[in-house]
Amino acid sequence: MSLRYASVLAAGVVAASPLLLSACGTSSSGGADSSGIAVKASDTACEVSTTSFKTGTQTFSVSNAGSQVTEVYVYAAGDRVVGEVENIGPSTSKKLTVALTAGSYEVACKPGMVGKGIRTAIFVKAASGAAPTTSPQLDAAVATYRTYVLAQAQLLQTRTKPFVAAVEAGDIAKAKSLYAAARIPYEAMQPIAESFGDLDPRIDARIDDVENGQEWTGFHRLEHDLWKTGDISKDKAVGTQLNGDIAKLVDQVQRVELSADQIGNGAKSLLDEVATSKVTGEEERYSRLDLVDFAANVDGSNVAYQALRPIVIAKDPELGTELDARFAAVQQNLAQYGSGASFELYDALSKAQIRSLAADVDALIEPLSQLTATALKA
Question: Do 355 and 348 contact (CB within 8 A), yes or no?
Answer without folding.
Answer: no
